[in-house]
Amino acid sequence: MNDPAIIAEDLVFAWPGHAPVLDISRLDLARGETLFLRGPSGSGKSTLLGLIAGVLKAGSGRLDVLGHDMNSLSGAARDRLRADHLGVIFQIFNLVPYLSVTGNVTLPLLFSPERKKRVGADAAAEARRLLARLGLEGEDLLSRRVSDLSVGQQQRVAAARALIGAPDIVIADEPTSAMDSDTRDRFIRLLKEEAGAAGSALLFVSHDLSLASHFDRAVSLGDINRAKVAA
Amino acid sequence: MSALLSLAWRSLMNRKGSVLLTLMAVALSVALFLGVEKARTGAREGFDSTISGTHLIVGAPTGSVNLLLYSVFRMGNATAEISWPTYEQIAARPDIEWTIPVSLGDSHRGFRVLGTNHSYFEHYKYGRNASLRIAEGEEFSDLFDAVIGADVARELGYTVGTPLILSHGLGTADFGAGHENRPFRVSGILAPTGTPVDRTVHVSLEAITAIHVGWESGAKNPLSDSISEETIRGFNLTPKTVTVVFVGLKNPGTILRTRREINTNKGEALMAIMPGEALKELWSVTAMAERALMAVSVFVIAVGVVSILTSILTSLNERRREMSILRATGARPGHVFGLLTLEAGLVGFLGALAGIVIVHVLIAIAGPMVTQRYGISLGGTGPGYMDVMVLAGVTLASLLAGAVPAWAAFRRSLADGLSVRL
Questions:
Q1: Do B252 and B133 fall within a single domain?
Q2: pLDDT digit of tens for each residue in chain B (422 aa)?
Q3: Are B104 and B81 contained in the same domain?
Q4: Which residues of A touch B418 (CB under 8 A)?
Q5: Do A161 and B417 lie within an 8 Å CB cutoff?
Q6: CA B382 – CA B363 distance, rounded (Å)
C-alpha cells in the first residue's frame, strides 16, 4: 500500500484518569479508497474520528495521516492539516444556522487558504457546481435558510462542504442514519461518485452493516479495538 | 480576520432579537453617560461665553455666585442695591476705564427689563470679546425707548415701533400691577448672541426712574396715574440706585487691588467679584453632583457591557454544535475564541454608535429648549473627541467582556473534539 491516507498501529487513547477507550491494533486507508467502518455507538468511533481529524491526541501508538505523524504534530499543525486536507460530515445538524447554503459549503475555505487556492477564484460557483452534482439546484432552494431544508438536503449540503477543494480524506460519521432507505442509497452513491471525482479517500462510519456492500472494503471497529468499552 | 468578522456579523444577524435588546442596553447606557458629560461641558461653555471683557462686577454684598447669577444670567434677584453717589464714586476711580450701571427688577411678559446707559452697548462683551450689535433700528434715545433682545423680538413678534408695557416685579401679568400708564416703544432690536441678552428688554436708567414715579413706597400710589408724561419728563430722573455695575479696568494687572479696595469701601458696603472666579466657584458647587452623576453613568455603561457578556454566555450551550462544526471544517480554537470576542466587540461598537447618535439627536432637540428657557446656548456639544473616546472605550470593554465566554468556548472546543454532544 503505497503512500496511504491513514495508517493506525497500536493506537491507544484514554481520557485523563480513565481506562483506554481505544486500542486499535491496525487500521489503514489507501488514497482514493472507500472504506466502510462498522461502529455501533459506544465503540470508540467518535474518539477514533477525533484522533484522525487531529482534534484529539493519542496517548501512544502510531497514527499517520497523509504521511504526517499525528502524535508529534502540534495542535495548530493538526488543525492546519484538517483544514487543508479533510472533509467531515456528521450524523445530523451539520450546518451553521446563520450561513446560507453556499456559505455553509464554502465555510472550510475561510480557514484554509490552500484549499481556497485549489478551488480557484469563484468559490460560490464551485459550491453551486458541487451542490448541483449532489442534486441540489435552483435559486429557490439555494436561497432558503438551511434550517428549512429537509434532512436529506442538509446532508447533501454537508457532503458538498466536505468535498469542496478536493480534500484527500472525507470522513462521514453516520451521515445517513436519519434518512429513509431510498434517499440513503442515493446519497451514498452520489457521495462515492463525488469523492471519486475529487480523488478523495472516503471513510464511512455506520452501525448499519447492510451499507457495507457499497464500499471497497469493510472493517468492524469492534474487531480492531482491543479496549473494553462500556456501552 | 475579515472572514471571522463576516461570520460574527452573520451570527449576530441570526439572533437579531436578543442582539438588538443587548445593543439597546448598551446604546442607552452610552447615551446617559454622554448626555451627562455633554450637558456638563455644554452648560460650562455656555455660561463661560456669556460674559467677557468685564473685569469686575460690583453689587451690594451677597454671595459671589448669587451676584453673578442675577447680574449676568438674570437668575434670582438682587437683595439690595447700590446708591447712585456710590456708583459715581466707583466710576470716578482713576484705575477704572469704563463702567456699565445696571438696574434690574422689572419685566415685560416674562422677559427681564434691564435699565442701563449707552456704555452697555459700547462695552458689554460676550463670547470671544464680541460686542453687541443692533440688527434693526437704533439705541434708545427717547426716555420711553426700549432696545429688545433677538428672542424677545422673535417670540413676541415685535418690530421697531411696537409699543410695550413693562410690569413691576418679575410677574408675567401685563396689567394691574404694571406700568401701563407709561408705555414704551421698541427703538431697536439686537442681533442674536446666544446669551441672556437675547431675552432682555433694555431701557435707559432714567426710564426706570420715570416708571417708578409714584412707587416710592414700594407699591403703586393711586395718584401716580395723574402725573402726566410731560410732567415726568420735567423731573430730575437721575437714578437713586443701581443694582450692579460692570467694570472695565485700564490695566487688568490692578484687578486684585481694585477688588480689595472696592470690597473694603469706607462708605456703603460693596462687593466686587471677578466673573471667571465666580463661575469657577459655581462649578465647584455643582462638581459634586456632576461626579456622582458621572459615577452612576459609568456604572450603567458597565451594566450594558456585562449584558453583552451575559447574552453571549447564555447562548453558548445552544451554540456548542456550531462550534464543533466550525472546528470540523478547519477552525482552530483561536478562531472560536476570535469569533465570540468579535461578536461582543461588534455589539459594543454598534451599541455605542447608536448611543452617540441618540445623544446628538436629543441635543439637537433639547438644545434650543434650554436656550429658550435660560438664554444660554450649550456649547461644545458637537461630535468630537469625547464621542470617539467613548466609542473606543466601550468597544474595548466589550471585546474584553467577550473574552470571558470566548475563553469558555475555547476550552470546551478543545475538550469536545468533533463529537457533537447534544
A1: yes
A2: 677 888 888 888 888 888 999 999 999 999 999 988 888 888 888 888 888 889 999 999 988 899 998 898 888 888 889 999 999 999 999 999 999 999 998 888 889 999 999 999 999 998 888 899 999 999 998 888 999 999 999 999 999 999 988 887 765 554 445 676 778 999 999 998 888 899 999 999 998 888 887 776 666 676 666 677 777 777 788 888 999 999 999 998 999 999 999 999 888 899 999 998 999 998 888 888 888 988 998 999 999 899 889 888 888 877 888 888 888 888 888 888 899 999 999 999 999 999 999 999 988 888 888 777 776 777 667 778 889 999 999 999 999 999 988 888 887 776 666 665 43
A3: yes
A4: 46, 49-50, 53, 55, 88, 90, 173
A5: no
A6: 9
Q: Report which residue type is found at B248.
A: G
The answer to whether B229 and B143 have CB atoms below 8 angstroms apart is no
Say whether both B212 and B339 belong to one domain.
no
Count other Cβ atoms within 10 Å, centred on residue B240: 12
Rounded-to-integer distance, Cα B19 and Cα B308, Å: 8
ipTM: 0.85
Q: Which residues 55-84 of A are in CB contact (within 8 Å) with B? A: 55-56, 75-76, 79, 82-84
Question: Is residue B398 within 8 Å of B341, Cβ to Cβ?
Answer: no
In terms of residue numbers, what domain contains B387? 2-47+287-416
Contact residues, chain A, for B325 at CB < 8 Å:
90, 94-96, 107
User: Which neighbouring-strand residues pair with A171?
Assistant: A88, A203
Task: Give me the residues paired with residue B125 across strands.
Answer: B52, B131
Phi–psi pair at A38, nearest 5 degrees: -85, 120
Q: Which domains does chain A have, with CATH numbers?
A: 33-45+80-224 (3.40.50.300)
Which phi and psi (to 5°) does residue B179 adopt? -105, 45
Name every residue whose Cβ is closer than 8 Å to that of residue A165 and which is 6 or more positions away in sequence. Answer: A108, A109, A112, A115, A116, A118, A119
Give the Å distances, CA to CA, from B411 to A76, B333, B415, B419.
15, 8, 6, 15
Inter-chain CB pairs, A–B, below 8 Å: 78
